[in-house]
Write a structure and sequence with these properties.
The chain has one helix and twelve strands, in the order ββββββββββαββ. By secondary structure, it is mostly beta strands. The chain has one domain: Rieske Iron-sulfur Protein, CATH 2.102.10.10. The longest helix has 11 residues, at 88-98. The two termini are 13 Å apart.
């Protein structure tokens, strides 16, 4: 049996991201996605992130950007801890290990008034 989480569909209008159990679930202009919630940089909660103009999920702490279809970090962090600014060498280092530690990508499907999120079949 596959464990799943859900969220009321009316809590996920286009352009929004929210939490469904261990997942950050989002709505990219009607296209639903789900990825694991912990940023690969410093574990910020990606369900509090945003969706940018390219459809990437942006971390709320240091703006790492993720491709929600693959879980890849496509842009690294802009800072660390309480610092927010350019960190070129460090940013590349984080992107390097994030290639190995991609976000898990789940499956988000609307079922009636709910968005149901589950692991993708392997
Ligand atoms: S915790 Fe996500 S970019 Fe730093």
């Amino acid at each position: 049996m596959t464990k799943s989480s859900s969220v009321p569909a009316d809590q996920l209008p286009p352009g929004s991201v929210t939490r469904a159990g261990t997942w950050a679930v989002g709505n990219r202009d009607g296209e639903l996605f789900a990825v694991s919630r912990r940023c690969r940089h410093q574990l910020a909660d990606l369900s509090e992130g945003t969706i940018d103009a390219d459809g990437c999920l942006v971390c709320p702490w240091h703006q790492s950007r993720y491709d929600v279809t693959t879980g890849d970090m496509v842009s690294g962090p802009k800072g660390f801890l309480g610092y927010h600014g350019p960190t070129p060498g460090y940013t590349q280092f984080v992107r390097g290990y994030a290639k190995v530690l991609r976000l898990r990508v789940g499956r988000a499907v609307r079922v009636g008034a709910e968005i149901v999120v589950s692991r993708r079949p392997t």
